[in-house]
Specification:
This protein is an alpha+beta fold. It has 3 helices and 6 strands, in the order αβαβββαββ.
Length: 121
C-alpha cells in the first residue's frame, strides 16, 4: 500500500505550508488526485487521518477530488476515459488508443496529485 507513504509526504507539505504562515491549526485541505496515480481514495483518506494524529492537522477535513484520465490523439481528439465507457478504462491508456478514431494517443492528464488548498488558522 503506497498510500501511506504518499499520505506522509502530503502531510509534510501541509505542515510546512502551515508553519510558513504561522498557523495554529489546519482546518481543511483540498486534494486533486489523478486516476492514473493508482491511489485508492479510501485508503489515502484513512492514511491521511492516521498520519495527521498528534499534529496541528489532526482534525482537518479532507476533500479529495478524483481527476479523470484524458488522452489526445494525433487527429486532435481529446477524450476523457471513465468507467462508464464499459470494460477496463486502462485498456485505452495502456494501448494509448483514441476511443474515437483508434489512432495512437498520449495521456494529457490523470497523473496529477495536487495539494490544491489549505485552510488554516
Amino acid at each position: 500500500m503506497h498510500e501511506y507513504g504518499v499520505a506522509k509526504d502530503i502531510l509534510d507539505n501541509i505542515l510546512e505550508e502551515a508553519r510558513k504562515h504561522n498557523a495554529r491549526v489546519v482546518k481543511e485541505v483540498v486534494l486533486d488526485v489523478g486516476s492514473l496515480t493508482m491511489l485508492n481514495p479510501e485508503q489515502l483518506l484513512f492514511c491521511l487521518q492516521a498520519v495527521s494524529g498528534d499534529t496541528i492537522a489532526e482534525n482537518m477535513k479532507i476533500n479529495l477530488n478524483m481527476l479523470p484520465i484524458k488522452i489526445k490523439c494525433g487527429n486532435g481528439h481529446v477524450s476523457e476515459i471513465k468507467d462508464s465507457m464499459g470494460g477496463d478504462v486502462f485498456r485505452f491508456v495502456t494501448a494509448l488508443e483514441c476511443p474515437v478514431c483508434g489512432e495512437r494517443a498520449g495521456v494529457i492528464s490523470g497523473r496529477e496529485l495536487i495539494l490544491k488548498e489549505i485552510t488554516a488558522e
